[in-house]
């Protein structure tokens, strides 16, 4: 499963327009999809019903994926890359969590029931870290070049931008459960409890696929 030609395709079941042109992060707060765009230097709250922007604020430190935990947005940003905790009501940074070693490799994140999941490049790994201390609790080697990441029902899903792939990894064992091909070039990922959303960087749209379709791939 090293290339997009060897992975089965999955059907896109939802598609919404993106608000800007350099799609990075995506997460779900229970009501809205939150999206960060590097060139626009903004974070947007997106209505999943119609793609409307419900609110937005300037955020110049956007560099990669976006997460959500304890009422705060968690943006991978700054130099070196770290997790910036943001109050979604004010748009203000209220905390910083370094990701050590600080070598700029972290590309995706999402908080799950056991802690925060990260994907990193060179070497490519998926890590579970304690959200308070940011110490590594578990690490799974993965293949490809990870971009965004999300957590869904015991699985860590990560994207490969260039190959147009989604991989589903068993959160406990690290075994790759499935690899599927999606239209476009995926970056940020989010799971809303029903579908897996991804940012299609090339098409400037949010697209959704069913989790069972991914796991059966």
How would you summarize this macromolecular structure in one to three sentences?
The chain has one helix spanning 211-215; strands at residues 14-17, 23-28, 33-37, 42-46, 53-58, 62-69, 72-77, 82-86, 93-98, 106-112, 115-120, 125-129, 136-141, 146-152, 155-160, 165-170, 176-181, 186-191, 195-200, 205-210.
How would you describe this structure to a colleague?
- By secondary structure, this protein is an all-beta fold.
- The chain has a single domain, classed as YVTN repeat-like/Quinoprotein amine dehydrogenase (Methylamine Dehydrogenase, Chain H, 7 Propeller), CATH 2.130.10.10.
- It has one helix and 20 strands.
- Strands 1-20-19-18 form a four-stranded antiparallel beta sheet. Strands 2-3-4-5 form a four-stranded antiparallel beta sheet, with no helix packed on it. A four-stranded antiparallel beta sheet has the order 6-7-8-9, with no helix packed on it.
- A hairpin with a 4-residue loop joins strand 2 and strand 3 (33-37).
- The mean pLDDT is 95.
Secondary-structure class = mainly beta
What is the fold-level CATH name, i.e. the topology?
A: Methylamine Dehydrogenase, Chain H
Percent strand: over 45%
User: Which ranges are low-confidence, i.e. pLDDT below 50, for 5 or more consecutive residues?
Assistant: none
Query: How large is the count of helical segments?
Result: 1
Largest sheet features? 4 strands, antiparallel
In helices, the fraction of residues equals under 10%
How many angstroms separate the termini? 11 Å
Radius of gyration: 15 Å
Level-2 CATH architecture: 7 Propeller
Number of strands: 20
Morphology call: globular
Number of structural units classed as domains: 1
Strand order in space, largest sheet: 1-20-19-18
């Amino acid at each position: 499963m090293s290339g997009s030609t060897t992975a089965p395709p999955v059907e896109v079941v939802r598609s919404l327009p993106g608000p800007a042109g350099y799609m990075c992060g995506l997460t779900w707060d229970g009501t809205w999809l939150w999206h960060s765009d590097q060139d626009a230097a903004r974070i947007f709250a997106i209505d999943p019903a119609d793609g409307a922007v419900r609110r937005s604020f300037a955020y110049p430190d956007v560099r990669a994926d976006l997460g959500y935990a304890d009422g705060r947005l968690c943006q991978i940003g700054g130099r070196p890359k770290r997790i910036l905790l943001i109050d979604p009501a004010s748009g203000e940074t209220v905390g910083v969590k370094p990701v050590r070693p600080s070598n700029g490799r972290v590309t995706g994140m999402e908080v799950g029931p056991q802690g925060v999941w990260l994907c990193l490049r060179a070497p490519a790994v998926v890590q579970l870290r304690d959200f308070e201390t940011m110490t590594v609790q578990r690490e799974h080697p993965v293949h490809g070049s990870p971009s965004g990441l999300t957590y869904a029902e015991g699985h860590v899903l990560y994207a490969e931008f260039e190959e147009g792939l989604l991989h589903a990894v068993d959160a406990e064992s690290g075994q790759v459960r499935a690899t599927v091909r999606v239209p476009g070039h995926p970056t940020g990922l989010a799971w809303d409890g029903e579908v897996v959303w991804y940012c299609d960087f090339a098409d400037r749209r949010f697209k959704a696929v069913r989790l069972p379709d991914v796991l059966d791939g």
